[in-house]
## 1
Amino acid sequence: MGEKSVQKKKFILETARKVFVEKGFKKVTMKDIVEACQISRGGLYLYFDSTSQIFLEVLKLESEEADDVFSGSIREDATSADILILFLQEQKKELLRKENTLTQAIYEYYFEFHPTKKDNILKIQFDSAVKIMEMLIQTGVESGEFYCEDCKGMARNIMFVLEGLKISAQTIGITAETVDREIAYILKSLDA
């Protein structure tokens, strides 16, 4: 794919993201994306076959960008505790963000399509986050920053708490105080 095609595809994905944020997943059609991008229907189908394919590409792009932002925020001399606190603070920002979020669209997509474990990007991201969190906690235990007898169990628990907070943010609403309380509980559990 040439540079012009790469840029066009990225433009479509960035524009489609805005459409998914506004309408969720279920209500978005290829026509909506064509109109938002101001391109021909054929021009869109040159790159994508369906709204599902576009949505999954939007999620991948979003994940890559979030990883880049987080990685760029970590100091060279950061300790395991510093990294964990930075990660939890980034999660807090995301949880409290009221606008420009794909959370509703993500849940609509997964409730509608029930992807298998193999192609479920949320499951893949969750499992990857658990592994990274487990390594981070293990490193913190080895350096004496944390105390934890079951690093994998703690990592899984942290990710389930964050996922529960995401759902709560979309359904019943949460406050900064609620998120701070949960973060404090996580840190206390590690004696951080």
## 2
Amino acid sequence: MEYSDALLLDVLKRVRTIAVVGVSANPVRPSYYVARYLALKGYRVVPVNPGLAGQDLLGERVYRTLSDIPGDIDMVDIFRRSDAVPGIVDEALTRWPKLDVIWMQIGVRHAEAAARAERQGVTVIQDRCPKIEYQRLFGELRMGGFATGVISSKL
């Protein structure tokens, strides 16, 4: 999947509240450290995991499903297998008909569900990680020894 840096940067700048579906409470799991990173960058991260429902994680209550989340969110970040995506997308679009973004993590893709969301005006990103894209686009990967091609005056 090809996405322009302009699109990814626009998404990362405009969303403020992210529901992370499939988040783990285990700090060595990618879903945990991606959610934690996004929270540290100022996003409100709403965790969704039926096995952790009712607990607190990263300063937020964990919800069983997207439908249980009170209020609005801007983006659904999916940390589930690709075969689970259609149900998650359907639930998200039912809950928030004006949802802004559906983001599927690295290795997660579903063409039909993506097309269905895009027909409703939702920006869909597949097979990418918002943490990695944030770090790359905001010049933070260079701190780990990666040449990003992004010029920054940050030290």
## 3
Amino acid sequence: MPDIKKVTASREENTSYMNQVLPVKESFDIIQRDIYIGGLASSFYFIDGFMKDETMLKIMDSLMKITKEDMPKDATEFSRAMIPYVEVDVISDFDEVLKNVLSGVTCLFVEGYEACIAIDCRTYPARSVDEPDKDKSLRGSRDGFVETIVFNTALMRRRIRDPHLIMEMVEVGESSRTDVALCYMEDRVDKELLDTVTKRIGSIRTDALRMNQQSLAECLFKRKWFNPFPKFKFTERPDTAAACLLEGKVVILVDNSPSAMILPTSIFDMIEEANDYYFPTITNVYLKIARTLITVMTVFLTPVFLLFMQNLNWLPKSFAFVAVQDTVNVPLIFQLLILEIAIDGLRLAALNTPSMLSTPLSVIAGLVMGEFSVQSGWFNSEVMLYMAFVAVANYTQPNFELGYALKFMRLELLILTAVFDWWGFAAGCLIIAASICFNKTLSGRSYLNVKLN
């Protein structure tokens, strides 16, 4: 590892090195501001857009009033006595100086001081902490995580006023140097899990977290591609994250990502949502049971329908009405698979459609697919009905990753049933059960049983 260059007492030497490493002349937003403080030449380095202008004006006005007789002998005393601001630090090596400047901290070099003075008066562009669109609650708070990590930690600290709440900040990525906050309750967390997470984050060797949270998740847990069930629970709600902290779990926040990763997790955690806790006991129990039943139906409804259509003699007389009455021009399995892809196509189209056009286009797409596709003979009305239920029911649970994991299980079950009849259906059920039972969390525990201290 190369030696880290230290800050010297020569301002000219320090600024020469800074200008050599930073593209001050080429980049308009990296600014060097030279002034005299107490008769000594001094230089500020900061990023335009990350600095609070009014705060810096007041600091500079105060510094320019300092006389030569008032100047302290070293940087530490200067930072304590002469800078009227809260967050001030003294840095002695250029690696930390460069990291601070590029993070938005204002750094000051003063002639004769063998250290750099870092003034953290930065501000990041951020949107308001509105309720997330995906994870809404009928009752409870209406705030949500944003892309600024300090705001997100503040939202949780506001809910947990306990000295045992620890928020450790680490950096990941050689180039991105992304801030990652490890949050946990010191007196409740699973020490073994915390040690595992800390070691894995510390051992990450990557150039950058290009996709922020997802990149970190891939580095922490090398997932097996054939098991689509998620290893992490994600939430954009600070109240959900705070509740998980109080349960002894670990919450990971990544800068530039508006959601939190929760560890460890299980299949039961995945199907929970905030509404389960904001209603009386009997209501939230009903909501959990209803959501679980609907989730199970999204996986098995269309495969069971296909199985019975292939074995009409199994249908009881009281359920004879579910049989397809119209002429089947396209085999049922192909109808179901085409509709599975078409539903994802509509979802992707809705994401890329301007908001003012999304509603009319959704109505048009529903009419075309619902009415004319049946009349044209491509699809049967029964197939359209069951697939419409599956499409709507997918939105009853908030976890996006779990929704697609269940979709892949449904597709697998459909194909096996179509090819091998009831043998295939039974094999598909075993594969689904095995995928859930043998799926391991980051702590190595079963997906069905996450035990906390």
